[in-house]
Amino acid sequence: MDKFEANVTLVPLVICSLYILYKTLIKKPHPAPFPPGPKGLPLIANLKDMPKSQPWTAYTEWAEKYGPIVHINVLGNHLIILNDAKYATEMLDSKSRLYSGRPSFIMSGQMVGWGEGPALIQFNDTWAEYRKLMANFIGTHSKVEDFEYVIHEEVKELLTRFMSMPNEYLNHFEKYFCRYWHSL
């Protein structure tokens, strides 16, 4: 390998290294400082700090050390952990529109076009209208009970199909869901 080939192969490596250094070392200004939390490592931030089981024990320890509101950063995703019922009620109930959000799904939301549907839409006036319409249709226990007979009949039919032809379970599910989907 001559010097030219060695230089050509090093250029992408140097560019990637510089980009990673830039992203990790140059702090972007935030509108407000995050609450205190465990200090993370470069690049992976608090990934190693995330509990693998029984997360409430780690969260309780963090609350004792950092206070009732703890911030961690996991691979660039900032997570706020609320360790006090008072703060949780205030932030999640009283100010839910301010602090609520949903992830944006590129494939199903933007490319397929389901991003404006009730399940994927962000919290806004359209979402509030969807919620109001759904609450009017299925929002109370008595309204759900009105459809109980339909659910029972459909489940009975599905189970009958399973019993008569158990190996055809995929076809049974497909028929069941296609009929449900077309009834909407």
Structure description:
InterPro entries: Cyt_P450, Cyt_P450_sf, Cytochrome_P450_fung. One of its GO terms (molecular function) is oxidoreductase activity, acting on paired donors, with incorporation or reduction of molecular oxygen. This is Cytochrome P450. The protein has 184 residues and is mostly helical. It is 58% helix and 7% strand. It is built from nine helices and two strands. It has a two-stranded antiparallel ribbon. Helix 8 runs antiparallel to helix 9. It is extended. The model has no long low-confidence stretch (mean pLDDT 82).
Count of DSSP H/I helices: 9
Could you list the spans in which at least 5 consecutive residues all have pLDDT below 50?
none
Q: Main β-sheet: number of strands, strand sense, barrel status?
A: 2 strands, antiparallel
Strands of the widest sheet, in order across it, are 1-2
Overall geometry = extended
Gap between N and C termini, in Å?
66 Å
Query: What is the residue-averaged pLDDT?
Result: 82
Q: Into which percent range does the helicity of residues fall?
A: 55-70%
Kindly name the structural category: mainly alpha
Protein traits:
mainly alpha; Cytochrome_P450_fung; single chain; two-stranded antiparallel ribbon; 184 residues; 7% strand; oxidoreductase
